[in-house]
Amino acid sequence: MSEHNLWVRIRSNIGHRGHFVRMEFNPEAGIPDVDYCIKGTEGKIELKYAAAAPVRLNTAVFTNGGLRDAQVAWIYTRVRYGGRVWILPQIGELLYLVPGKYCRQFNNMTLHQIEKASAWASDERQISAKDWHQLLAILAELQ
Fold it and tell me: What is the rounded distance in angstroms from the CA atom of residue 117 to the CA atom of residue 123?
């Protein structure tokens, strides 16, 4: 699995419900991986992948492969001005949707802290259609 496979998973399950574009070429350092628009709501999603959670509960999940400094700066600035930015980490098979306001803390978060900060989380390997719909609703503020 990888960030690319995570993108395929997202696109396959909710990509047809809005306009989702993977930003393969970013003109500015730090711009998140995915740009989306759902029913008039626009936002960005930064994808992160970890093969498994750390064995020790107090160990940060993304000490390696987390947000780069340019990504933290871009997300922080966009959120500060009211933009919608999410961090979508996949840890093992589970997905979490972390609001961008946590970008400065993200690399140092344990699994428990990621779970606590998440606006949405999958609780099993096979995410149901209802769960995907809930994720979509949060991205589009359709609640």
Answer: 15
pLDDT digits (tens, 9 = 90+) for 62-79: 988 899 999 999 999 999
CB neighbour burial string for 72-104, b if at least 16 within 10 angstroms, e if fewer: bebbbebbeeeebbbbbbbbeebbbbbbbebbe
Place of tokens 């994720």: 135
| DSSP secondary structure letter of residue 15 | G
According to DSSP, the residues that pair with 48 across neighbouring strands are 89
Q: Packing angle between helix 3-14 and helix 129-140, nearest 10 degrees?
A: 90
Find the farthest-apart pair of alpha carbons in the chain and give their distance in angstroms, rounded.
42
Contact criterion met (CB below 8 Å) for 96 and 120: yes
- pLDDT at position 24: 78
Give yes or no for a contact between 131 and 104, defined as CB atoms under 8 angstroms apart: no
Q: Whats the size of the chain, residue-wise? A: 143
